[in-house]
Amino acid sequence: MSLRVAVDRAHCELHGQCVERVPSVFRFTDDGDLDHLTEADDDLADDLSDAQFLCPAQAIEVGPA
Amino acid sequence: MTDVAGVTGGQAVAPDHRPPDRVVVVGASLAGVRTALGLRRNGFAGTITLVGAEPWLPYDRPPLSKQVLLGEWTPDRTRLASPEQLAEQGIEVRLGDPAEALDQPGRAVVLRSGARIDFDALVVATGAAPRPWPFPTPDTGVYDLRRLDDATAIRDAFDTAPRVVVVGAGFIGTELASAAARRGLPVTVVEPRPDPLAAQLGTLAGTALLDLHRRHGVRFHTGRAVRAVHGADRVTTVELDDGTLLDADLVVVGIGVLPNTGWLRGSSLELTDGVRCDGTGVTSTDPAVWAVGDVARWPVAGHVEPRRVEHWTSAVEQAGVVAYNLLRPPADRRVTAQTPYVWTDHYGLKVQLVGLAGPDDESTVLHRSPDGERFVAVRHAGGRVSAALAFGMPETLPKLRTAVRSGATLAEATALFG
Ligand SMILES: Cc1cc2nc3c(=O)[nH]c(=O)nc-3n(C[C@H](O)[C@H](O)[C@H](O)COP(=O)(O)OP(=O)(O)OC[C@H]3O[C@@H](n4cnc5c(N)ncnc54)[C@H](O)[C@@H]3O)c2cc1C
Ligand code: SF4
């Protein structure tokens, strides 16, 4: 059923490409921090892979849960 | 398939719809390596050859003027793909051997070594190179900043506490000034325009960024051009067109870039300020040749003429589109008109810009932080938003993107921050 999603917070630079591409998994909190689900449905594999590609900080990891 | 307004020349129709067996990608940097990896991601099983002029495996450039100059990252942190990953993906990499010519009728690329590489499809990803300096300079102490070895050389030169003069107050010049000032070095920036950064950010945000630099001790000579750089073999002074002499141990020139299209001269490709493409990434004149990244001129949302966008995300988006389209017949291809996005880092503050404003578009601040230092602004013309920028407020970016993409009115954009 699911994928594991992790963001390396030491690398993340808050470009928000992930928020833009997969809003169901990534979001910005009101105080400007990145927040994300740690598990996502398999259906989102392609979208998550796009987000990984688009992240300028190469901070997103996606793997089997 | 939707059509993008302003794309002329129409859809190039391949004589047959056979997908290619051999793809050659010229330019082993961001756009090139992402195209190669993207082809595999799309299931391409043929051969991929990635040709690069530089001796290094693909690496990322934005950190060069940021983390690498500050000494926060070692150069290997900038790597975009490991040798193992490239081998595993079946991508043959030929480094340090630039393409010198395109044999268009023969469907081959000719390298400096004399090697010929045949292709069914060619992706041009040769990027851009610093605009050459218009007059002679001393051998030592004058740099531009595009390659990994430029960044490490400047970083090392910082260690001897030099007096730094930056020529050109664009993103790269001012990021360099920020890095040097943070290292405690005296920095002077020379810029012929009276309002540095206004072309990129508008006068309002350009002025705010300049003020930030001034608060960190950077001095500016605006509306002044460099007349000469003096020094026998090592630079000693920079002379401005009003006669001012600036003492300098280290001069960094950031006066823009030109697309690397020299090796394509004589081909049928349209090469005026970059390789002209349609919104699918195929070149305007040859259905077997594609172009991506800084070297390519693609349609941009809201603009009639295709243009080069020298930004990281454009290179990545174009690589994704071409990796998809190159394997498909014209009728199944995706078309994009990109919304440009760029960021720049100064003293730990991130400025992010979405969209492409006209030079005369007005700026309006929509929101400010309580301390007044950070803000969100839009550029607009005729009541419509053309671009938006976040000055130290990355969390506002999704809203700004929505405003720019939808071509919001100024009132609608203001309401987003009400
Ligand atoms: C210091 C610096 C900081 C930057 N910061 C930012 C930033 O903060 N945000 C942002 O959005 N963008 C930034 N950019 C821009 C971004 O790095 C570029 O948009 C991106 O590198 C474009 O990738 P590319 O692959 O198209 O071109 P390039 O990275 O220029 O790569 C082209 C490659 O092709 C090679 N090549 C050239 N000619 C030949 C030939 N004949 N044969 C074979 N190979 C050839 C070159 O050697 C080069 O390796 C920055 C750029 C620099 C230099
Ligand atoms: S795209 Fe990458 S850098 Fe940007 S917010 Fe997402 S994880 Fe962070």
TrEMBL record, chain A:
Cofactor: [3Fe-4S] cluster
Protein name: Ferredoxin
InterPro entries membership: Fe-S_cluster_ET
UniProt KW keywords: 3Fe-4S, Electron transport, Iron, Iron-sulfur, Metal-binding, Transport
TrEMBL record, chain B:
Cofactor(s) essential for the protein: FAD
Keywords: FAD, Flavoprotein, Oxidoreductase
Cross-referenced InterPro entries: FAD-oxidoreductase/Apoptosis, FAD/NAD-bd_sf, FAD/NAD-binding_dom, FAD/NAD-linked_Rdtase_dimer_sf, Reductase_C
All residue ranges annotated as the FAD/NAD(P)-binding domain in the record: 22-319
Record-annotated Reductase C-terminal domain positions: 341-414
Recorded coiled-coil stretches: none
Protein name as annotated: Ferredoxin reductase
This protein's record includes keyword Oxidoreductase: yes
Pfam families: Pyr_redox_2 (PF07992), Reductase_C (PF14759)
SUPFAM superfamilies listed in its UniProt record: FAD/NAD(P)-binding domain, FAD/NAD-linked reductases, dimerisation (C-terminal) domain
